Amino acid sequence: MSAAGHAAEHASAARVWLNSTRVWLARFPLCLIQLAMRIAVGAVFFNSGLLKINSWEFAIKLFQDEYKVPLLDPVWAARLTTLPLLGMIAVIQTFVYPQAWTDHLLWASILVFLLTRGPGELSLDYLVERWVLKQGRLLI
In degrees, to the nearest 5, what angle opens at C-alpha 23 toward C-alphas 18 and 24? Predict the structure, then answer.
C-alpha cells in the first residue's frame, strides 16, 4: 500500500474514533452540566454579594472607587446590582472591567444557555413546572 493509502486509512480510523467518542460523550446527562453551570455562575455572584452584604460601607466604597459607574450615585449603583445578572454583566463589562471580557463572555454564555434551554431536570424550577403542568394550571 502506498503512503497516501496509509494516510487515508489513518484519517478514516481517526474520523471513526472521533465520531464514536462524540457519541459516547453525548450520553453525559445535560442536567448535570446545567446544574454545574448554575452553581458556577451563582457562586461568582453570591461571593460578590456576600462581600457587599457584610459591609454596606465597603459596597458603597467599591462603587465610589472601583466600579465608578457613570451617571449613577454610588448608593443607587450599589442597590441596582440586584437587577438581572445579565444586565449586571453588561454594566461590569462596559464600564468597570472591559479587559475581563473573557470572564464576562463565559458568564453571559452560561446564563444565555440556561435562559434558552432551561435549568435542567436537577432544579426546583423543573419540579415546579412539572407540578403546574400536571395540575393543568399553566396558562400560556
Answer: 95
